[in-house]
Design a protein that fits this description.
homohexamer; alpha/beta; six-stranded parallel β-sheet; four-stranded antiparallel β-sheet
């Protein structure tokens, strides 16, 4: 059974949601809703997935509605992390008509984007089922949205790589170009990194890999290696470090990459290319 | 000749870039660069498009580098709005090695995302060339990134629809459900909207369209109409209002939609589904 | 009947109110109230208009009291938009004595200022009753207070012009000085403005007006024209564009300006010159 | 000779100016200037007082222009604190045409408001020339603008009272209503206030005044007393405390109030009622 | 009886606490608690002073817990300002296990630091009991924490000196070096300072003191004077100004300094050197 | 040779410094400096350590001076990380007299606090010289100051533990109380933590240690163990995990703890108890 993904606390997104609503309202407010709807008018509606998708961002979306109507009533039909079919109802809302329509776009933009990331992740995860490989995202996130996007990857069944420059050492080709080779780079990094910090290095050849293994690292990023080379690299590592495949991963080749035996497959596309899921919000007809 | 798109002033993105860098540095800073590179070390490198794309976000990306190295030297090879071929160099940078590598991800994330939006827009614009139709984005933008995404659409040759709830009236199906029909909604909105505010209404049938034209609106959003119906709607409008097609637009059908004679085609996918362009940053070999 | 003005959502002013309270408390807090009043002490008091005025900003003022005492009880005697006589009670409050006295100034400063703007607007609106003219404010607002001031104009029975540089095109004399005449300016603006954006131009002579009408604009700002000239300008426009009178409008001449037949009269003085209404807060005697 | 008023450091207003510009630009930017003016276009213009006024806020206004064009050239013709005649040129600017026109309103709104406060203060100061009375403002300021408004009073030749609840004790009628009389209130305040904090009490009768003098205070606020009573109160105080007249002060009666011998006259109207000075910005004709 | 110290309003620390929690959670959240504890799991625990201390910051600490669990139940065993023995229970909490453990460090860091300041102050206050001297802190506070540290000094039985550069005049040796002696400095300051502002001057010799007394000041700071000299200085002042001893005060000499008869003893060490009190939080065993 | 400690980028402290200055200036500004010093007056002065100390925070302090005077000239006499003797000059500054005196306290508060942390760290590091033990700080930091305090520990020759809840897993006694023992806790954490995240567990007995080693962890925190027990624990670990001693570490016992062979000694006191270094700023006499 998939363990529950590490959740977010509202403190981690309330301010983002607030700013997003404030941006959308601007100084003039919701010209349309304010003109057409009476202040006290109540309405009810349903959030629906228009395409099959993994639900992600439901609490974030509800937070948007609640910031405009603290008395909002919400009945959740499909919980965070559930797999919705096309047309499936996610939640039924009841509250101020003005609030529902003014918060709709902020809520749906977030829900659609995060469900898009989670769904794309889930699809890759399914393709590597039965292997040891975990799907992880990268730092190719969008400004201000990184924590939410990383969370969506967890909801999709993936795991997280570094969140920023601050939480692990990852020596890449540009670093190597400047500091004279694998061994020297690892040596410097080892001396500087704290005892709770892991150290990974990107290698492009078996020679670099050998050099890295010789000095010792926690993980090796095997960059853009074709499956056959990947397989040899994994053998060479022999469990002495965690192996990560990266570069050019697509839904079509991810299973083959996983079959090479790597521990982790990192996919930037999850956070910069996965399309949003089409989510709708339809008011209930008035009886 | 395409007119120069309305630009952004640095005041509109400096704070976003700063927050993005601060997020990435965290409290511990760039563990890797700080360990491997000397404080005063200088490096040079080139930003390259790895795929054919329209360049968008170059000043935003340079802003990231400059916030970490105010003395950065940048030579721009392909200007904002240019169409780059695969592998084309966009800019050559020279500055603090630490700054270049610490700002790289923030800069490239923004450049890649905005170029992705601009490129997707450009491709749609090309498909409707020779028609009267303009491609526009929607409010399906990401929190905090709306102004930049709207700008990228302009760089792609498209135009902008509403930026938020505040800058125009757009009466949609959910509004109509609550306020009793097209005529009544338009009447209420007209009374409330200021004299500098345009009014658009979403219609799904020719009957609704007739009702809207009878009361008078600035624009009609023809929602999810098949091309034949669109054509009849455009004829019915007869130039008395601006016509907008929306819903289910894809690269495959956009030309057909444009051929129906609409003034504007709005495409949410540009801002919530266009994949980022793959942008690289490679340090020059040290001589 | 005057339609209810477009309201504000608390999200649009809560942060302003919070910052205002924090500014007033400073690091040392309310030295007087803290010294004289016990923490749990309860008091009751009444907000009163000391002069005849239109009430505006009541919810904003209550927001200040509630941020210091979330359990505040408020009974509203005269609703937002009502016309109060001198001495009229607006609201009766009951809550923490310390909170009441510490929030008083922030609350009353906002209530007095906004009621001042609304009252001044109402007075002008009354003077043009029976004409087609609407009174509108300008962008001559105070930093951070624009949205509230614009709202106060609506509560006063006026309407809003542009909120910022972003929500409409307004070509003024300084623009014309730089871009070679009315026709060229309108042409450039038309090409650049989105389809949901209105375009207005400021003209000082009938020649400029003719030029503007020839190329077509949504509205014309007739700058500083004496009534006779205004009347001729309105005739010339003949309903092909909205007409706005601006410049040198005073309570004394506004009726004459309106009688010239313009659609809109814009008055910067409403937001930069209308004096605050004198509002008092008196504690009830203790029984 | 009037001593130079205590100045402001840019750190005290840069952020306010930035937010004001960002508000005005919004997400879409300056639609008009961006459409009509080329990015590199240079223009020059002059800031002029349209009415006689004391200049205040010039550096704040220039700060707005400079935030949009860091290379702005400014030649100051009339320095901060100078008295300008109608039509007098204050400063000549040269810089990016787009920046000049986009920053104009933010700059002029601040300059006009602050000059309005300074001018109104100056006029009152002149009316009390030859007396010992100093004109001071109150806490009836606008949210976010208090520090600037207080500064404008200094530029007008006035002085400052408390800036907030934090920087002095001022016992008012509402406090007295709750804590049982003058002597008890002063006693409690004295015990609580730090050694660097002054203590003032508002009194409405000579009996209250006697009670205050008996326990000892730094200053007495003589609330709404007619001149004859004021004079008796000042005599009664006999120099043992600073005397402040407040309530109902107008340009017409201020000299009479001052003649009663008070040390300080506080006037809320300076910050909530003084109309902005009309300031213009005209581009130079192009040669 | 010690009068209740001037309290803080939550508005004065909520934002600091929120930022502290957000900093600690980062983008990845509480990796440990999220991994080990179920979302709905409830726990109970007790906050204990591990050393004898004066309790300070309890509401601030509870604010941290409540921001992560708004439904937290707290039973307070030892109120703010109480003197706890080693091991004494301060409060018993019951709420979300995840929230309790994620907020623990933020809450305890603040509680420990503020109790440390209050305890150190209390200890000095006790040493000067029976004299007229009050213990006060200085502006040697930490960025962002000044208001809380000043409050802790009040809870410890001390009083506050200036909060910032803004709330009183204090002429120090560096000022004197630049403006030509005591008399001239006081004269300039007197002319500039408002009527509600006190004026203090630092003197190092009896000659400077005489000069200060001759021109008149509200307080004199007797800098680094040995007790015998202090005593002579106090006599010289003879009650005409408030006397403050400062510089080199330690627990060992504070009583001797107080015995010299000064009104105020200022001790920077209270806010930059007092060690935090060791505070523990132990979960109750599960029954 | 001690490797250069990982530095801070100005982006990581500029905003903190700005807020600190703004707090200190308040709305009224520097009443003393503004009254006594002319705007253009220039002064020079020297920052000196009054006690022997390791210099830390020099760039942060200079940042404060430069925010008030961008043209400040600074000559650094003792670089960051140097060991200063009592009285040693650290830097000579020359710039606006007003700026020097207004920024002094903010600058010195930061410099004194950070040098205090660095000096205390250095002293502990010296005591464990010749052992394998590294001195590290904990999360017992002050709100908003964590990144700077962690940096000061590095400048003192120490290393960093976790920065927050986000960058490593640390299972403590409170966690164990809730999730049923060491093995289960590690199992859950292992499943949840990403591949770049280290996992440490706090143990109080050799039995718990054995259990932890059996399931495998990256590090063990040996809590409050007396030296003899520590030694046995280190032997038991036998290099299979990193060993950390924590709890009750003092300058007196740190060498004994280090001699037990642990890899890391964590000391909360460094950030919540180390007294600030006394730093002075004296203006040069005017020639």
């Amino acid at each position: 059974m998939r363990p529950a993904p590490q959740p977010l606390h509202p403190l981690q997104y309330e301010e983002l949601v607030r700013r997003s609503l404030v941006e959308d309202l601007g100084a003039a407010g919701d010209r349309t809703g304010d003109a057409l709807l009476a202040p006290g008018e109540v309405a009810a509606g349903r959030i629906r997935m228009r395409r099959p998708a993994r639900v992600c961002g439901l609490e974030v979306a509800l937070c948007a509605f609640r910031q405009l109507d603290p008395a909002l009533e919400a009945e959740i039909a499909l919980a965070e992390g559930a797999d919705a079919e096309a047309g499936a109802e996610i939640a039924a809302l009841r509250g101020s008509a003005r609030a529902l329509l003014a918060a709709e776009r902020t809520a749906l933009n977030l829900l659609g984007h995060l469900s898009g990331v989670a769904t794309a992740t889930r699809d890759l995860v399914r393709r590597v089922a039965g292997t040891r490989a975990r799907i992880v995202g990268t730092r190719k996130t969008l400004p201000g949205l990184g924590a939410l996007q990383k969370y969506a990857i967890r909801v999709g069944g993936g795991a997280n790589h570094r969140f920023g420059l601050y939480d692990a050492v990852l020596i890449k080709d540009n670093h190597l170009a400047l500091c004279g080779g694998v061994a020297e780079a690892v040596r410097r990094a080892r001396r500087s990194a704290g005892h709770m910090v892991k150290l990974e290095i990107e290698v492009e050849t078996l020679e670099q890999l050998d050099e890295a293994l010789a000095v010792g690292v926690d993980a090796v990023l095997l960059d853009n290696m074709p499956p056959a080379l990947l397989r040899r690299a994994v053998e060479r590592v022999g469990g002495c470090a965690l192996t990560e495949a990266s570069g050019g991963i697509t839904p079509d080749n991810v299973a083959e990459v996983a079959a090479a035996g790597v521990d982790v497959i990192s996919v930037g596309w999850l956070t910069h290319g996965a399309p949003a899921v089409d989510v709708g919000f339809d008011l209930d007809p008035i009886r």
